[in-house]
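Lecture notes, part 5. Sequence design as translation. It can be helpful to think of inverse folding as translation between two languages: the language of shapes and the language of residues. The source text, in structure tokens, appears below.
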């Protein structure tokens, strides 16, 4: 099953972005640190090509720190690109964000040429939370000045540093099947877009491959070497008392337990994709 999710306002989002990007110095794309590639919007990459780019790997508290570092290195190796990891607990997000942007556009800044930075990201990646923590009360009134779309939110992070928010929804375009599952596991795509059990089985297969000990610790499932994904799901159901009559496991309940735990970070810090895996998935998707 391929998860598809194409709400109709994609065109409007595309137009808004095209309008905004013209006089922007740096484009920040917020990504989910647990699924950096899946949570990227390919349209953003296409429409902002050539602009200095800052990738924010957000929700790093939920992600595997070693793999977050792998992704940071991966992005920083790209020309004109920097990457930082953040989470809502970060004490000084402004400092981190502003200095990364200044380094990307060293010739901008100062009151003559304030640095103008666009921030975008798919829903649920934590953009509002970050903007709230960045601003305190520094949100500039939205205005009708040239170059500023009506209703657009501008945030002054310094006298010469302006953050421009994209209010539109930029949905991920799911071209890679595994990416769809990862988005679904993270909660970034709506409930009715996915078959929960399939999403959980896919998630379990990944965890069995890379995070067996976290699964064992969380659910006390014992040695699961050589087990099938659904056997592990059943075992989790049994361990958690998700039972129907007659000794049968309530699979739906078990799946919900795993999803809820994963989203809350209760299984442990987990990242669902690595750059080399993503490349292989992309290649397979192209050949399909
Ligand atoms: P937006 O749709 O991108 O504006 O996302 P929100 O800011 O509304 O955040 C979506 C959900 O993620 C909310 O439940 C937030 O509390 C949660 N969230 C945001 N940032 C973080 C973070 O750094 N770590 C964790 N664990 N949760 C976060």
């Amino acid at each position: 099953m391929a998860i598809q999710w194409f709400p109709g306002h994609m065109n409007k989002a595309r137009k808004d972005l095209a309008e905004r990007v013209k006089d922007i110095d740096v484009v920040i794309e917020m990504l989910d640190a647990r699924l950096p590639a899946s949570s990227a919007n390919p349209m953003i990459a296409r429409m902002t090509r050539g602009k200095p780019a800052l990738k924010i790997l957000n929700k790093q508290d939920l992600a595997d720190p070693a793999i977050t570092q792998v992704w940071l290195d991966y992005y920083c190796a790209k020309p004109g690109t920097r990457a930082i990891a953040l989470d809502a607990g970060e004490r000084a997000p402004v400092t981190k964000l502003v200095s990364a942007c200044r380094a990307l556009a060293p010739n901008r800044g100062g009151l003559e040429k304030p640095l103008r930075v666009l921030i975008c990201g798919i829903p649920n990646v934590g953009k509002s939370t970050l903007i709230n923590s960045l601003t305190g009360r520094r949100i500039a009134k939205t205005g009708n000045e040239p170059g500023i779309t009506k209703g657009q939110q501008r945030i002054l992070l310094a006298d010469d540093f302006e953050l421009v928010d994209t209010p539109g929804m930029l949905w991920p375009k799911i071209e890679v099947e595994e990416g769809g599952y990862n988005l679904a596991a993270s909660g970034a795509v709506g409930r009715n877009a996915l078959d929960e059990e399939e999403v959980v089985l896919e998630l379990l297969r990944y965890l069995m491959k890379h995070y067996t000990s976290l699964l064992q610790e969380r659910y006390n499932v014992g040695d699961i070497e050589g087990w099938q994904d659904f056997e592990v799901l059943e075992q989790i159901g049994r361990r958690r008392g998700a039972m129907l009559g007659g000794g049968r496991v309530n699979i739906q309940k078990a799946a919900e337990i795993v999803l809820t735990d994963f989203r809350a970070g209760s299984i442990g810090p987990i990242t669902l994709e690595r750059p080399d895996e993503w490349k292989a998935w992309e290649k397979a998707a192209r050949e399909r």
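The translated text above is only one of many valid answers, since several sequences can fold into similar shapes. The CA atoms of residues 162 and 194 lie 38 Å apart.
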